[in-house]
Write a structure and sequence with these properties.
alpha+beta, about 55% helix, 2 domains
Length: about 270
C-alpha cells in the first residue's frame, strides 16, 4: 500500500510540480534571452497578430479572418526574414547558456597588462579595440587579421595601436590568455539608435557583441574615453578601475587585492 501511495504522490504531486518549475525556468531564461537580443519588437509584432486574429474570431469578422488565414504563411516567412538577425542572436544566446558550457574554469587574461596599456593609449588619444573571446569562437574574425599567438603585455598592445603601425586600425583578439591576432575587422552594428558621436570603432564593438558573447574594450581616438561593449550594449566613458572590475566579472577572472581595495574605497 505504501508503494502505491508513493507512486501516486510522484505522479500527482512531484511530477506536476517539476513540470511547472521547468516551465517557469524556461520562460524566465527565454525572457532573459529576448531582453539581451533586443527581440522585443518581434514579441510585439507576434502579440499584435494574435490579438488581431482573436478579435476577428470572436467578433466573427469573416473578411478579416479570410485575409489573415490567406496571409498567415507569408507573414510567418516575412517575420522570419525581417527578424533573421534577432532570431540568429536568440539561438546564439541559447548555445551560450551556462548550462551548456563544459567548463567553468577562469582563464588568465592578464587584465592588469591590458588595462595599463589602454590607460596609456587613452592619455595619448590613441584609438584601440581589444576583443576578449568567451565561449563563442571568433575564427572567422581572426582570419581577417594577422596571426600573432603572442603573450599579453602592455608594450605589445601599445605598439600595435601606435600611429605608424599597419595594425592600428583593426582589433586585437584575446583568446585563451593570448593575443591570437591583430588588425582584425569586426562586423559593424546596424542599430539605428546608436549615438552619432560614436565612430567606426564603437559600431564595430557593438556589432561583434550583438553576434557573439565577446567583450570588447574600446579607446576613443577623439576623446580618449574608455568604453566596454557586451551583450549588444555600449557602456561609455568608464574609469580604468571600473573597466578592470567589469572585465574581471565578465571574464571570470580573480581581481588582485589592490584592485579590490581601490574599488571598495571608491564605493565606500
Amino acid at each position: 500500500m505504501s508503494f502505491l501511495t508513493d507512486i501516486w504522490i510522484l505522479r500527482e504531486v512531484v511530477l506536476p510540480t517539476l513540470d511547472v518549475l521547468l516551465l517557469a525556468f524556461i520562460i524566465y531564461k527565454g525572457y532573459q534571452i529576448l531582453v539581451q537580443t533586443r527581440a522585443i519588437q518581434l514579441i510585439k509584432g507576434a502579440f499584435f497578430l494574435v490579438l488581431l486574429y482573436a478579435t476577428a474570431f470572436f467578433l466573427n469578422l469573416r473578411t478579416l479572418l479570410w485575409i489573415i488565414n490567406l496571409l498567415a504563411p507569408s507573414l510567418v516567412i516575412g517575420l522570419a526574414i525581417i527578424f533573421q538577425p534577432e532570431l540568429r542572436k536568440i539561438f546564439t544566446r541559447i548555445g551560450q547558456g551556462r548550462l551548456l558550457q563544459l567548463s567553468g574554469r577562469s582563464k588568465n587574461y592578464e587584465l592588469d597588462a591590458v588595462v595599463s596599456a589602454v590607460e596609456r593609449l587613452s592619455a595619448d588619444r590613441r584609438g584601440a579595440l581589444v576583443v576578449f573571446a568567451r565561449t563563442v569562437g571568433l575564427k572567422s574574425i581572426i582570419e581577417t587579421g594577422t596571426r600573432l599567438d603572442a603573450e599579453i603585455s602592455s608594450p605589445l598592445i601599445m605598439s600595435i595601436f601606435g600611429y605608424e603601425t599597419a595594425l592600428h586600425d583593426g582589433a586585437i583578439i584575446i583568446e585563451d590568455g593570448k593575443i591570437v591576432a591583430a588588425g582584425c575587422f569586426l562586423p559593424l552594428s546596424e542599430q539605428l539608435d546608436v549615438r552619432r558621436s560614436f565612430g567606426t570603432r564603437h559600431r564595430a564593438a557593438l556589432g561583434v557583441t550583438e553576434e557573439t558573447d565577446a567583450v570588447v574594450l574600446v579607446v576613443s581616438e577623439e576623446t580618449g574615453a574608455l568604453t566596454l561593449s557586451y551583450d549588444g550594449n555600449l557602456y561609455y566613458d568608464l574609469s580604468a578601475t571600473m573597466v578592470r572590475r567589469r572585465l574581471a566579472e565578465l571574464l571570470n577572472v580573480q581581481t588582485t587585492g589592490t584592485v579590490q581595495e581601490e574599488v571598495a574605497r571608491i564605493e565606500g
